[in-house]
Structures are given as structure tokens and as C-alpha cells.
């Protein structure tokens, strides 16, 4: 089986039904093994062999143009009313108007009147008939087949005027669908335009303007005040305020200096910077965001899967209902053939599934694009919908609810060792550790100018501590639990530990197998925004907020009470956090887990929705989480949940409205209360309302 996978961008992909037909046509190419069409991002991935010419032949029915993904092409920005198919619709409208003028002046049966309506039908419906008749010959039933049969049937029974109205309103409906998807895709296009296509590169003593595709890792970019940064890199000279709103959604510029990381698409506001490029153009953070957003739009949400499955049976069912409506009453109830054929045609028209098919994708694409512009990466419609149903939110404490920059607050001795010695021994062991508390110990030792001891044979105990050998003696550093496993902790030491923990501090003990030498207490500052975030979540209807921490229960309770979380689960190892999330899911159903995406990756994976913070700074967060908050804070969490709930409501409204209107129209057709043109007007109206309702999601913002 071929592993060759080629990705192409598409131009002119106008409707969800056209996308499905295009995909089917490509699958019919013998050398193609698999096809993945992304309607939201207007892209297609082909496994196997197919030329651009073959792909364009497959999409010729809708005028689809195909371009290799990496090939630069300038997308034609044609005004809505100047597009060829829309010009045909406008001309069709003129003949329709002249036709009705002729009805009032010379009568509806006049050859001139019929000619005007016929021209309106042919000009406005040419593309429709071309596809519809071809489908009919293959017994393929989609909305274009329904409309073709309805319009030809109207002409046969002499309803030329109504046939022309149906053609015009259907063309208008198609134009609206194309316009709505273009609007929804604008969020992605705006992301693509964030980073410049060229940068000034310093080579030797000369400066050159270079295309980003030709810039290599290690090249030096020269960035003047007011310029956008073209590539991810590290500042090697200069300092400035950099606006990262395009990446993180944070509107306040961040101070950057030598050694700091900058992202492609961010704006250098003040100083002159020299930046060493650290990633190729296709690997930059903004490139990854665009790729992941496009992948997210390709993933069908549960509601979309339901609609797609329903549509498979819906269209043939409408054909059967229309046929029965047309023939049963005349055959068995003495009805007029022309009257009941007319009503059967009205069933075909009202059965057009435009509004239903577009009800979900336009809402999902709009919401995911809106979120990306606001610094939130949602990796699929399923995660968007699940976030809208959340009942419980669990937080990893360190670095999520707290700053993640712990500081040593106390050094105490429980033996004849001095506090200075306790700090020096601790620093010697922690030199080998990557734990956040280790860096706090090393900073304190450096600040206090503690003696530098050399340690050997380092070994860590996950979630408990570590040990190493100093001057022939084996020392341990870690939580009280680690020492409880080796000895009985003296009462006076236990009292001091309890006192520090009651202040919300984390306690680490230092000693040998036989004796506790001393201890350190470490505190992490609660983020200023954490309390307001918890309160906002409660207002949004989140039933329970849970803090998960490896700290002692007393220390965890202090932070938990400050933040008013519903529950604190403490003294948890990484595997315990995983178990905690699983138990919350069993008790409450939909649970989100929020962390940094690194230490808590298993817990994130087991949650209904895993949300990682600081996605702009770590590839791991982008890869492991279902949703990544690009900024290193929780400010966008309430916005994300509110957007998801609004999207869920919009999708439900769209589906209910599309279904409801179809059902109502069908009930009106049987007694003859609904004409052909009223039926198509109901269809266009429902499509328009579904589109406008979905595009409201573009207005949902962080504030």
C-alpha cells in the first residue's frame, strides 16, 4: 500500500454537498487509495497518485481549482456580486422580473412570457441542471437532483413562473452558503497573514531581504521598532516591548531582552532587536497553530456526524415522499393529476437539505477560527462540543493556579547541623533534579552564597524526593512521606512541619536513613487572576472545581480556601492525579483537566477535555492537550467555556430550526397551502437564518 500523501489547497469549494461529491469523484480515481477532505480549511489530502489535472476534472462540476499546499498562489479576491455564478443569478433575476411584468401585461400563457421565464431558468440554472441531470442518469440523489426534477416538472405542468422563482432562490441560497463559508474561513486566512513573508537577514557585514522559506536556523534577523517578527528565534542583542497578541491573545506587550524567545507574527514595538532564528518557517509556533486549527476543522463533531448520517437517508426519503404525494391521491382518491404533481414538486423543493447540511460546519469553523484569533487553540469540533457540556473542572495546582515559581521561605535545623549546612546539602542533591522545587532551592543557595558540595550517585523517587552521596554519606531530600517510610519522625519535628503546612507552605526534609538533619519550606504565590477565574467558572454553571496537588493536605487546603475551590485533593503522585480524574468522570460525567501539559500529560489524556496552558512556549502542550491556552495563564478559560457553550446552543438552534421549518412546510404542502416559490423561499430563509446565527460566533470575544 502506498504511503505517499499529498496535500492540496482548494479554491472554489462552495458547499458541503459539493465537497462530498468532490471527495467521491476522487475516490473513483483508480490510483487513489484514500482521501481526506477538509471542507472548513478548503484542503484535501490524497494517499496514492493523482495529478492536479485529474483532481480538477473531479471538481469540474463546481469549478474547483487545485494547488499543491506549498505552492504560492494569489487567491483571487472577487467581490461577492462579481463572481461568475452570481452574475448569472443577477441576469436570471432580471429575466424573472421581466417575465412577471409580461404576466400582468400580456398574460402568463403568452409565448413571450414563457420565453422570458425559460431564459431565467436556463441562465440561472445552467450549472444546476448540468450536475442534476448527470446525477439523475446515475441515480444519485442529492439536493441538486431534487431541484432539477422540481424545476423541470414545474415547466412540464406549465408553472414556468414558479420554476423561474425556484431557480433564482436556489441560486441565491447557494451563493449565501458560499459566502458564509468564506466568512467563516477568514479567521484562518487572517492567521496566515500574521507573519511577514520576508525578513532582513544579516550575513557578514551585509543585510539582505530574504523570503522566509529561504531562511535557515542560525540566521540573524534584524528587527526595527514597529516591524513584525517573521520567524521564531532567540534575542541575542537588544531589548524591547513585544506585542504577542497574535499568538497568545494577550494585548499587553511583554518586555523581552537577550536570551528571551520571540515568535513569528509578534510585533516589535520599541527597541532594535537582533534575533537568532531557531525554527524553519514550517516549524514556527504560528505555522503549527495554523496546521492544528486546519486539522481541527477537518475533524467532524458529533453533531456533524449525526447530520451527515441523517442526510444520507433524508434525500432519498424526500424523493419517495414526493413521488407518493404526486401519485397516490390521483390514483386512489380521485385527485387532479396536475394539482398533486405540483404538490409533489413542492415536497422536492422544500426537502432541499441546504440549511441542515450547513447547520454544523459553519458554526464549528467560525468558533474554532474565533478562538485561534483570541489565543486559544481548540483541536477539533468534538472538543469544542465537549467543553460546552463540562460539569467539573480540575486544576493542577503548581504553575496553573499558582505562579509556578516557588521560593524557599524557611530553612530550619533539627540537629547539630547549621542552617547554612542544611541549605548547602540540599543544593548539592537538587543540582541533578529538574523538579520546580529544585530550582527554588538552588536559587536560595546561590542567594545565600551556600558552600558548593559535590554529590554523586543521584537517584530520584517520583513524587517523593531524591537522594545522593556527599563525602561518603548518603543524604535524602523530600516530602515527610519519604522519611516516614524510613523512620519514625520525632514529635517536635512533626509539630514544626504542621505549623509550616498550616501556612500553605510545602515542607521538604533533609537527612540520612537514620536522622532528620533539617528542613526547608517552599511557597508558591497564587496567581492574582485565579480567584476571579474560579468565580467566573461558577457563574458559567460549572458545578464543581477541584484542585489536585502533590502538597500535604493542610498546605493544599490553605490555597484551596483562598481560591474558594469546591474540593482539594492533596498528596497526589502523577498516577494519583490520573486516578482522581477518572473518579471525577465516573461521579460527574464531563470533566476538564487543566495543567502545563508536561508533568500531568496522563491526567490531561484521561479527562473529557485536556486543557494545557502556555502553548506558545512548549510543543508538548500543543501536542498533548485537546485545547491549548497559548498564554501562560488561565484568563482565557472562562471565554473558552462560554464560546463552546454558545457554539453548542447555536448548533442545536440551527438543527432544530432547519428540521422544524422543513416539517412545518411539509405539513402546509399536503393541503395545498404552500406554493413552489413559497417552498423554496422557506428553504432560502432557513439557510439564511442558519448562516447568520452561526456567524454570530465571530462576535464572541474575550471580554
From TrEMBL:
User: What residues form the membrane-spanning segments?
Assistant: 89-106, 112-129, 313-333, 345-369, 676-695
- Classify the main location: membrane
**What family name appears in the similarity comment?**
Belongs to the cation transport ATPase (P-type) (TC 3.A.3) family. Type IB subfamily.
Asked if the keyword Translocase belongs to this entry, the reply reads yes
Task: Give the Enzyme Commission number.
Answer: 7.2.2.21
Alphabetized Pfam families for the sequence: E1-E2_ATPase, HMA, Hydrolase
The protein in question is named Cd(2+)-exporting ATPase
Q: Which PROSITE patterns match?
A: ATPASE_E1_E2, COF_2, HMA_2
Q: Which reaction does it catalyse?
A: Cd(2+)(in) + ATP + H2O = Cd(2+)(out) + ADP + phosphate + H(+)
Q: Supply the alphabetized keyword list.
A: ATP-binding, Cadmium, Cell membrane, Ion transport, Membrane, Metal-binding, Nucleotide-binding, Phosphoprotein, Translocase, Transmembrane, Transmembrane helix, Transport
**Mode of membrane association:** Multi-pass membrane protein
Question: One GO molecular-function annotation for this sequence?
Answer: metal ion binding
Its domain of life?
Answer: Bacteria
Which InterPro entries does this UniProt record tie to the protein? ATPase_P-typ_cyto_dom_N, ATPase_P-typ_P_site, ATPase_P-typ_TM_dom_sf, ATPase_P-typ_transduc_dom_A_sf, ATPase_P-type_domA, Cation_Transport_ATPase_IB, HAD-like_sf, HAD_sf
The signal peptide here is none
Intracellular or extracellular location(s):
Cell membrane
Amino acid at each position: 500500500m502506498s504511503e505517499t500523501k499529498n496535500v492540496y489547497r482548494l479554491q472554489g469549494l462552495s458547499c458541503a454537498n459539493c465537497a462530498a461529491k468532490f471527495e467521491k469523484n476522487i475516490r473513483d480515481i483508480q490510483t487513489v487509495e484514500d482521501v481526506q477532505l477538509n471542507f472548513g480549511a478548503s484542503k484535501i489530502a490524497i494517499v496514492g497518485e493523482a495529478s492536479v489535472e485529474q483532481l480538477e476534472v473531479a471538481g469540474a462540476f463546481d469549478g474547483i481549482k487545485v494547488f499543491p499546499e506549498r505552492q504560492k498562489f494569489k487567491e483571487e479576491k472577487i467581490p461577492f456580486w462579481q463572481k461568475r455564478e452570481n452574475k448569472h443569478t443577477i441576469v436570471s433575476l432580471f429575466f424573472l422580473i421581466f417575465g412577471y411584468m409580461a404576466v400582468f401585461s400580456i398574460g402568463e400563457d403568452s409565448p413571450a412570457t414563457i420565453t422570458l421565464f425559460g431564459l431565467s431558468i436556463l441562465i440561472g440554472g445552467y450549472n444546476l441542471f448540468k450536475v442534476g441531470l448527470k446525477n439523475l442518469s446515475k441515480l444519485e440523489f442529492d439536493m441538486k437532483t431534487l431541484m432539477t426534477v422540481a424545476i423541470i416538472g414545474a415547466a412540464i405542468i406549465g408553472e414556468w413562473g414558479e420554476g423561474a422563482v425556484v431557480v433564482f432562490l436556489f441560486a441565491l441560497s447557494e451563493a449565501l452558503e458560499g459566502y458564509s463559508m468564506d466568512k467563516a474561513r477568514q479567521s484562518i486566512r487572517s492567521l496566515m497573514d500574521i507573519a511577514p513573508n520576508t525578513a532582513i537577514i544579516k550575513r557578514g557585514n551585509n543585510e539582505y531581504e530574504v523570503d522566509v522559506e529561504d531562511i535557515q536556523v542560525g540566521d540573524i534577523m534584524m528587527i526595527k521598532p514597529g516591524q513584525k517578527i517573521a520567524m521564531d528565534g532567540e534575542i541575542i542583542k537588544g531589548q524591547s516591548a513585544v506585542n504577542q497578541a497574535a499568538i497568545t491573545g494577550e494585548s499587553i506587550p511583554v518586555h523581552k531582552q537577550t536570551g528571551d524567545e520571540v515568535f513569528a507574527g509578534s510585533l516589535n514595538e520599541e527597541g532594535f532587536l537582533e534575533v537568532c532564528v531557531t525554527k524553519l518557517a514550517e516549524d514556527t509556533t504560528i505555522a503549527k497553530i495554523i496546521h492544528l486549527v486546519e486539522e481541527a476543522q477537518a475533524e467532524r463533531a458529533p453533531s456533524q456526524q449525526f447530520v451527515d448520517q441523517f442526510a444520507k437517508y433524508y434525500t432519498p426519503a424526500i424523493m419517495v415522499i414526493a413521488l407518493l404525494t404526486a401519485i397516490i391521491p390521483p390514483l386512489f382518491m380521485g385527485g387532479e393529476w396536475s394539482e398533486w404533481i405540483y404538490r409533489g414538486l413542492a415536497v422536492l423543493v422544500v426537502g432541499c437539505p441546504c440549511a441542515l447540511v450547513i447547520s454544523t460546519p459553519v458554526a464549528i469553523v467560525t468558533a474554532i477560527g474565533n478562538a485561534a484569533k483570541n489565543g486559544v487553540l481548540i483541536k477539533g469540533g468534538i472538543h469544542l462540543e465537549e467543553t460546552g457540556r463540562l460539569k467539573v473542572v480540575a486544576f493542577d495546582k503548581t504553575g496553573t493556579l499558582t505562579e509556578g515559581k516557588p521560593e524557599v521561605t524557611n530553612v530550619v535545623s533539627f540537629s547539630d547541623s547549621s542552617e547554612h549546612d542544611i541549605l548547602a546539602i540540599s543544593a548539592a542533591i537538587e543540582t541533578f533534579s529538574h523538579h520546580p522545587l529544585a530550582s527554588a532551592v538552588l536559587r536560595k543557595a546561590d542567594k545565600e552564597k551556600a558552600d558548593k558540595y559535590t554529590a554523586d550517585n543521584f537517584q530520584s523517587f517520583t513524587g517523593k524526593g531524591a537522594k545522593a552521596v556527599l563525602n561518603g554519606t548518603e543524604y535524602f531530600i523530600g516530602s515527610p512521606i519519604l522519611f516516614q517510610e524510613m523512620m519514625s519522625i520525632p514529635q517536635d519535628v512533626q509539630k514544626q512541619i504542621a505549623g509550616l503546612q498550616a501556612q500553605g507552605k510545602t515542607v521538604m526534609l533533609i537527612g540520612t536513613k537514620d536522622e532528620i538533619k533539617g528542613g526547608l519550606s517552599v511557597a508558591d504565590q497564587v496567581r492574582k487572576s485565579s480567584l476571579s477565574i474560579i468565580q467566573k467558572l461558577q457563574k458559567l454553571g460549572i458545578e464543581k472545581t477541584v484542585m489536585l496537588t502533590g502538597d500535604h493536605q493542610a498546605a493544599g487546603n490553605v490555597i484551596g480556601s483562598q481560591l474558594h475551590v469546591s474540593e482539594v485533593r492533596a498528596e497526589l503522585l502523577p498516577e494519583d492525579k490520573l486516578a482522581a480524574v477518572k473518579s471525577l468522570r465516573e461521579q460527574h460525567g464531563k470533566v476538564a483537566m487543566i495543567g502545563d501539559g508536561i508533568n500531568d500529560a496522563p491526567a490531561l489524556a484521561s479527562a473529557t477535555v485536556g486543557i494545557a496552558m502556555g502553548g506558545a512556549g512548549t510543543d508538548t502542550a500543543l501536542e498533548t492537550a485537546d485545547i491549548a491556552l497559548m498564554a501562560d495563564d488561565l484568563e482565557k478559560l472562562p471565554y473558552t467555556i462560554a464560546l463552546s457553550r454558545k457554539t453548542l446552543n447555536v448548533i442545536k438552534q440551527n438543527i432544530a430550526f432547519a428540521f422544524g421549518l422543513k416539517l412545518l412546510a411539509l405539513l402546509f404542502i399536503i393541503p395545498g397551502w404552500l406554493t413552489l416559490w413559497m417552498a423554496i423561499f422557506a428553504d432560502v430563509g432557513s439557510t439564511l437564518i442558519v448562516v447568520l446565527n452561526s456567524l454570530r460566533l465571530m462576535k464572541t470575544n474575550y471580554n
